[in-house]
């Protein structure tokens, strides 16, 4: 579904990512991990068309740069860690905006397909009680769930999640990741998540890409990438020993 080859991003003399390569198949959930400044967000921004790069990104067998923005939006959807909402749209209105990429024109009316996609997204995320509520009144978890529903209504093939639960409490972190896992069960879907929490990554991911200073430390099945040696190389820390000490307090 997705193939990234020699992805390189430079800002002047600064190389942010250096020849990063990986692929993603249907049904896979890739966790993009590494310390701050590793280039994780730059990788996902490049895939979604937000950052200029050299190298090649192929989406469903076609060069990503050959897609028009609305074409790419039908295939790749992005959920950020925060959202700027300056107007009191209702939850339903925000979810319905996910259908914009499928609209044939600026003033085109909504179709039955739009209504069906929005209804399914609302049902999947359990937002029925909030439909007429202003998003300005929502908690952080409810707001993130609303924008996740918008993404589900957009109905892309690939979800890109840039630290989607970074500011959420434990209940909402679990809720968001469970919703994504459920979405991924449908055919011809894949997910990429930028995460800092390695426990969450290991619990939900099938694949991992471990970066350090813009370079690949390891990539492949998450059980192989998350070896003691690889994590120490990326974080300059015995992550296994630290986690054992931390979680030992709960035993």
TrEMBL record:
Q: Which GO terms describe its molecular function?
A: ATP binding; ATP hydrolysis activity
* Domain of life according to the entry: Bacteria
Which ranges carry the ABC transporter domain? Answer: 2-238
Task: Kindly indicate whether the keyword Cell membrane belongs to this entry.
Answer: no
Ordered alphabetically, the record's keywords are: ATP-binding, Hydrolase, Nucleotide-binding, Translocase, Transport
Would you indicate the residue range of the signal peptide? none
**Regions annotated as coiled coil:** none
Stored InterPro entries = AAA+_ATPase (IPR003593), ABC_transporter-like_ATP-bd (IPR003439), P-loop_NTPase (IPR027417)
- Reported EC number(s) for this entry are 3.6.3.-
Question: What Pfam families does the entry give?
Answer: ABC_tran
| PROSITE patterns cross-referenced by the UniProt entry | ABC_TRANSPORTER_2
Q: What is this protein called?
A: Hemin import ATP-binding protein HmuV
| Source organism of the structure | Oxobacter pfennigii
The lineage is: Bacteria, Bacillati, Bacillota, Clostridia, Eubacteriales
């Amino acid at each position: 579904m997705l193939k990234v080859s020699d992805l390189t991003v430079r800002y002047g003399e600064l190389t942010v990512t250096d020849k990063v390569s990986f692929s993603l198949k249907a049904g896979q959930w890739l966790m993009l991990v590494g310390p701050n400044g590793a280039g994780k967000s730059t990788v996902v921004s490049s895939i979604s068309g937000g950052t200029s790069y050299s190298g090649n990104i192929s989406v469903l067998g076609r060069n990503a740069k050959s897609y028009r923005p609305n074409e790419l939006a039908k295939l790749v959807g992005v959920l950020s860690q925060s959202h700027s909402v300056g107007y009191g749209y209702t939850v339903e209105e925000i979810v319905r905006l996910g259908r914009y990429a499928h609209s044939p024109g600026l003033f085109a009316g909504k179709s039955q397909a739009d209504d069906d996609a929005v209804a399914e997204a609302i049902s999947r995320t359990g937002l029925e009680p909030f439909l007429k509520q202003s998003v300005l009144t929502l908690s952080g978890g409810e707001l993130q769930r609303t924008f996740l529903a918008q993404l589900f209504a957009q109905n892309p093939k690939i979800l890109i999640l840039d630290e989607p639960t970074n500011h959420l409490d434990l209940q909402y972190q679990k809720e968001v990741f469970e919703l994504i896992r459920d979405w991924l069960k449908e055919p011809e879907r894949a997910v990429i998540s930028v995460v800092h929490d390695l426990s969450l990554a290991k619990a939900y991911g099938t694949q991992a890409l471990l970066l350090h200073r813009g370079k690949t430390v390891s990539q492949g099945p998450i059980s192989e990438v998350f070896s003691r040696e690889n994590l120490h190389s990326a974080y300059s820390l015995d992550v296994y020993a630290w986690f054992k000490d931390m979680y030992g307090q709960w035993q």
